[in-house]
Amino acid sequence: MSKRGKPEFDELILSRTRLGIISALISGDKLEFTYLRNALNLSDGNLSVQIRKLEGAGYVRVEKMFVDRKPKTFCEITRKGRRAIRDLIATLDRIANPD
Amino acid sequence: MSKRGKPEFDELILSRTRLGIISALISGDKLEFTYLRNALNLSDGNLSVQIRKLEGAGYVRVEKMFVDRKPKTFCEITRKGRRAIRDLIATLDRIANPD
Predict the structure, then answer these.
(1) Is the whole model's pTM more than 0.90, yes or no?
(2) Nearest chain B CA: its distance from A51 CA (Å)
(3) Which of A29, A34, A65, A81 is found 20 to 30 A from B26 (Cα to Cα)?
(4) Residue A24 contacts by C-beta under 8 Å, 6 or more apart in sequence?
(5) CB count, 10 Å around CB of A97?
């Protein structure tokens, strides 16, 4: 809790779409952009925006590589990204079980 | 997970402001609107909107009463509201610990 009694939530991870991306990546696999887009049923634009936000926060690492001479974008969760979801769970747990 | 592999998050509770309101109410106390507004550092308008959303979902009960002849608005978490936060924790836990 902050001084004002307001719990500190990580705004960046508190989004259904971004939690969906983090969830898909949490196993540790590098996932391809198109795969993520289809699995999460998102538009290219929305997935790009959300990935960029997660990348900016250091929660996701993005790597571009050529596969069969075609450029592909791969995403991977970082240690910081894992910590972010664990911190969110811990904060919620403290809230739900205040004693 | 849904058929598409997308985890099911309760959009209604996935908001920093609404989680703040739920957190403030979780002890079970009936809290007055002005108290909540100050504790969470929100505007009247924003708090009203968010409370109405939580009330609409059945997560919060709103009661108007007179105290010293002045109308006051009290908010209280419902059983459904408690369940919502527990479900969110459970979903996140499953995501963070997939085995």
Answers:
(1) no
(2) 16
(3) A81
(4) A31, A36, A39, A40, B5
(5) 10
Which one of B2, B16, B21 makes the best mutation probe of the A interface by having the most chain A beta carbons within 10 Å?
B16
Most confident option among A72-76, A87-91, B84-88: A72-76
Residues of chain B positioned with their CB less than 8 A from the CB of A15: 14
Contact A6 B26 (CB under 8 A): no
**What's the pLDDT tens digit per position in A21-45?**
998 999 889 999 999 999 999 999 9
The mean pLDDT of chain A is: 89
Order across the sheet with A60-67: list the strands. Answer: A31-32, A70-77, A60-67
Domains and CATH numbers, chain A: 16-96 (1.10.10.10)
Rounded CA separation B17/A52 (Å)? 24
Partners of residue B47 in chain A, C-beta under 8 Å: none
pLDDT band at B61 (very low <50, low <70, confident <90, very high): very high
Q: Which amino acid is at B80?
A: K
Taking an 8 Å Cβ-Cβ cutoff, which residues of chain A contact chain B? 4-7, 9, 11, 14-16, 19-20, 22-24, 26-27, 39-41, 82, 85-86, 88-89, 92-93, 95-96, 98
